[in-house]
Amino acid sequence: MERRLVITVDGPAGSGKSTVSRILAKRVSYMYLDTGLLYRAVAWQAMQRGVFITDDEAIGKLCDGVTIPLKTGGEMRVLVDGKDVSAKLRTEEIGMIASSVSAIPAVREALLPLQRSAERQGGIVAEGRDMGTVVFPDADVKFFLDADVDERARRRHLQLLEDGKNANRGEVKRGLAVRDHQDTTRKIAPLKPAGDSVVIDTTGLDIAGVVSKMAMIVEERAQGGGPAS
Question: Which of 58, 96, 115, 226 is the most exposed place for a label (fewest CB within 10 A)?
Answer without folding.
Answer: 226
